Amino acid sequence: MDGWYYVIGQDRKGPVSFEEIMALVSSGSLVPDSYVWRKGLEGWKKMKELSEFSADRSNQTPEPIAPSIPPTIKPTQKFDWHKVDSGRKIFTIRIGPDRGQETEEYGPFSLEAVKSLLNENRINGKSLIFAPGMEQWVFITDTPLFEMTGGKKNLPPIIAPEERRKYVRRPFVARLLFHNNEEVYEGICRDISIGGLQVLVADYPVAKGDAIQLNVHPDNSSFSFVAKGKVVRVLEGRRGFSIRFEGLNAEAQASILKYVENDE
Predict the structure, then answer these.
(1) What does the alpha-carbon distance between residue 133 and residue 63 come to, in Å, rounded to a whole number?
(2) I need a labelling partner for 18 at 20 to 30 A (CA). Which of 53, 126, 134, 234 fits?
(3) pLDDT tens digit string along 211-237?
(4) In terms of C-beta density within 10 A (0-12 exposed, 13-18 middle, 19 or more buried), how is residue 181 classed?
(5) What average pLDDT does the segment 235-259 reach?
(6) Is the peptide bond before 108 cis (omega within 30 degrees of 0)?
(7) Secondary structure of residue 262 in the 3-state scheme
(8) Per the confidence metrics, is the pTM higher than 0.85?
(9) Mean pLDDT of all residues in the chain?
(10) In the chain, how long is the greatest CA-to-CA distance?
(11) pLDDT in tens, 92-145
(12) Rounded distance, CA 116 to CA 90, Å?
């Protein structure tokens, strides 16, 4: 199989054939902990994680120190990329850390829209993505999106360990109840303060002036709170709305302030 890329030190090399990869293995240039990638893989993988390289290597040269590249962070198994309705707007994109700028969240987008953004280089492998069912923000390089777009634009980037630690924690997620509607919506919160917040959620049945009840629950339950508010703005394209809190209790205020103070 052709089209293999590999890492030596901090340099990415390729594409090369499978035979060339095996020659590098035989020479000791690549070892079981070396990172490789080809179309079809969700991010860089250690060679020992792939069936293609599972043959016995007991006669090889002793392994050198592995390159300092982090393992892949995968979405939770509850989220299946291949069963996503391509037209459903469920994905939120976080940019900023991928280009040395302030963090911003945009969305929600459909899978087809995310693919277009990637192909147009408006987002990249270091952009973060989140959808209901994921455990946390995920780097696009760690998803099947490069495979889904044909892998034509760029190789998946290498993510430094400190970037993973800093940026992947679960976003502030709100479950929303609208009047007496029994259907529950889930959206991503941003611009959070004790005065209000903005929620990114597609086609939520809301208008300026409507009352909203929110159950907000990021991954750390100590930040969770329940609140009521009034819609003060509906975002263009009905991608979400801004609310002003009303009657926010002391417990909710404390949770919000604690989250803001710990925000990255």
Answers:
(1) 38
(2) 126
(3) 888 887 755 456 678 888 899 999 988
(4) exposed
(5) 86
(6) yes
(7) helix
(8) no
(9) 76
(10) 73
(11) 998 887 777 777 888 899 999 999 998 888 888 888 899 887 878 888 888 888
(12) 15
Average pLDDT estimate for 8-20: 81
Which domains are seen in the chain, by residue range? 4-53 (no CATH), 81-167 (no CATH), 173-262 (2.40.10.220)
Is residue 206 a contact partner of residue 213, using CB atoms and an 8 Å limit?
Answer: no
The encoded tokens of residue 164 equal 């993973």
**Which pLDDT score, from 0 to 100, does residue 218 have?**
59
Helix (H/G/I), strand (E/B), else coil: 187: strand
**Burial of residue 56, with CB atoms counted within 10 A of its CB: 0-12 exposed, 13-18 middle, 19 or more buried:** exposed
Q: How many angstroms separate the CA atoms of 128 and 171, rounded? A: 11
- Please list the alpha-helical segments (H only) found in the chain: 18-26, 111-119, 145-148, 161-167, 250-262
Work out the pLDDT band at 19, boundaries 50, 70, 90.
confident
Q: What pairing do the DSSP bridges indicate for beta strands 45-46 and 35-37?
A: antiparallel
Burial of residue 129, with CB atoms counted within 10 A of its CB: 0-12 exposed, 13-18 middle, 19 or more buried: buried
**CA proximity to 146, closest of 264, 41, 71, 216:** 41
| Residue 75 to residue 18: CA distance in whole angstroms | 28
Q: What letter represents residue 87's amino acid? A: G
Tokens 């991010």 label which residue?
Answer: 43
Ramachandran angles phi, psi of 128, nearest 5°: -105, 150
